[in-house]
């Protein structure tokens, strides 16, 4: 079956960080699509239809009438979006696809490990669970260079207040010794991940971000912690 391509106007743009922008893409009149939280869309500029780029949805399936993607200044597409995309511009959009889906069941604990902009799909996970008042536990372990690199910090802190089953933990890898940051420092390691796990059999691990982080997380979870690979989903971003 051919993919239905729609042209969508950018409704709003939000600068999350100096190098990271969220686009809210308005569905055109009559557009309907069946999609799931955790999927991605593929976008392109109408003047360069041969160059396409896939981005995870940072919105969730509860959000109807629009898609949100959060893009870091990286490569041709990311640079053009962050530096030039504005409200009123239009993008070609292929429908959502992908299998990086949250297991939002009452007895499950989702441990979501992210680096950099890899945290964006987990915003959708938490939005979905919070709005539906689900009992699913979600813990995000987020690795950034410095506190200036934390995407969605205010929103995740607000969601922690709204959802007692959600925890947002950040570790910084490149802070100077003089920085007053009171939180964790250093890379994500087996001891930190192990400390978050209660019922191993009902824990589902997710990793999203740069190749190196995702591959290291796979080895950490599967080889160091001995968790079956069937309890883990990965999303690499080049």
Calculate the mean pLDDT score and round it.
Answer: 96
Q: What's the β-strand tally?
A: 12
Helix content: 10-25%
Number of helices: 5
**What sort of overall outline do the alpha carbons produce when their principal axes are compared?**
globular
Q: What distance separates the N and C termini?
A: 28 Å
CATH class of the largest domain: Alpha Beta
- Stretches where pLDDT is under 50 for at least 5 consecutive residues are none
Largest sheet: 6 strands, antiparallel
| Beta-strand percentage range | 25-35%
Q: Tell me the series of helices and strands, N- to C-terminal.
A: EEEEEHEEHEHEEHEHE
Q: Strand pairing plus helix content: what structural class?
A: alpha/beta
SSE arrangement:
Elements (H helix, E strand, L loop, with lengths): L5 E12 L2 E7 L13 E5 L8 E4 L9 E7 L2 H10 L5 E8 L11 E7 L4 H12 L5 E8 L8 H10 L3 E7 L11 E2 L4 H7 L6 E7 L1 H14 L7 E5 L2
Parallel strand pairs: 7-8, 7-11, 8-9, 9-10, 11-12
Antiparallel strand pairs: 1-2, 1-6, 2-5, 3-4, 3-6
Features:
12 strands; 6-stranded antiparallel β-sheet; 33% strand; Rossmann fold; 238 residues; Elongation Factor Tu (Ef-tu), domain 3; globular; single chain; alpha/beta
């Amino acid at each position: 079956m051919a993919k239905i391509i729609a042209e969508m106007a950018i409704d709003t743009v939000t600068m999350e960080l100096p190098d990271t922008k969220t686009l809210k893409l308005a569905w055109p009149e009559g557009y309907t699509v069946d999609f799931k939280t955790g999927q991605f869309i593929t976008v392109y500029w109408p003047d360069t239809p041969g160059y396409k780029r896939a981005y995870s949805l940072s919105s969730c399936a509860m959000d109807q009438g629009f898609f949100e993607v959060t893009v870091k200044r990286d490569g041709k597409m990311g640079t053009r979006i962050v530096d030039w995309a504005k409200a009123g511009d239009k993008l070609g959009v292929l429908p959502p696809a992908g299998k990086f889906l949250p297991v939002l069941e009452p007895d499950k604990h989702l441990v979501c490990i992210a680096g950099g902009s890899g945290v964006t799909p987990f915003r959708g996970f938490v939005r979905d669970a919070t709005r539906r008042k689900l009992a699913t536990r979600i813990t995000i372990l987020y690795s950034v260079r410095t506190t200036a690199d934390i995407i969605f910090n205010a929103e995740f802190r607000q969601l922690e207040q709204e959802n007692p089953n959600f925890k947002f933990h950040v570790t910084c890898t490149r802070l100077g010794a003089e920085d007053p940051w009171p939180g964790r420092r250093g890379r994500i390691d087996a001891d930190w991940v192990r400390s978050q796990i209660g019922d191993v059999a009902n824990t589902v691990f997710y990793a999203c971000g740069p190749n190196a982080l995702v591959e290291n997380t796979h080895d950490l979870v599967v080889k160091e912690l001995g968790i079956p690979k069937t309890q883990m989903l990965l999303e690499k971003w080049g």
